[in-house]
Amino acid sequence: MTESIRHSTPVPKERPSRRVVLSRAATLTLAAAGGAATVAWDTETIVSTHHTVRIANLVAPCKVVQVSDLHRSWCVSNSFIERCIVAANRHQPDAVLLTGDFITARTSYMPSCARAIARLRAPLGCYAVLGNHDYASDEWQGAPVITGALQQVGVQVLVNTSVSLKNGLRLVGVDDYSTGEPDTGKAFSQVSARDAVLCMTHNPLEFDILRGYDVVTIAGHTHGGQIDLPIITDLVLDKRSKYLRGWFHSDHWPGRMYVSRGLGVLGIPVRINALPEIAVFHLVPA
Ligand SMILES: [Fe+2]
Asked: Which residues are close to ligand 1, an ion, with C-beta < 5 A?
């Protein structure tokens, strides 16, 4: 399997919001204070990345769009979530894969998030896995609420299981690495050697458990670092995720993984050098 990143396209906006204006002012301030370091403080500009991915046994090309880490909360507005959905639909996907963290902490934000998700349009369907914030929401009681809200708007939630799409693509969903009960044996139990396969999970650390599986996996969770300052972030954080963003492969097993920067934010409405992302996968027969 081979992949190539073709290009990135910012989604046009009609008019910058007050938050964007403030963000851009902060960007300039930070850039001035940081001297030569170039930083971009922007939580609003949605960037689409495009990836051509060869899949063994795939009969015909199809387009899959990944929407990850919406994190609807006090600092991620419903209007932003709606813009994310519009941006995803603009790619006219065959299928949409939602890789978890729909809310940050409270399921009270889920109804508005689900109403926006209901507007996704994809003839092969919309599919989801839950993230660690979904499981931990409402003092660890929120997962059924989030699952129910997704199912009500036609999204199929995959927990250690797989589904065969109408075009023959078998989609595998592995439960969250840190808060779920990931079981790759169960998740892949219905997958045959003749299947065209794509795997989805929330936390990219799952990649280490997927050794031995010759599949392409997509994940989110990291927000691309969310605040990714040259030198400073490394000094503040003693350990960074080894799968922060982009494509990864191992020298020891054939699978590959793409980690999206996701769309929302966690904790504070700040992203630096990690713009919100919608990943578009152009799947083609190998
Ligand atoms: Fe997240």
From this structure: 69, 101
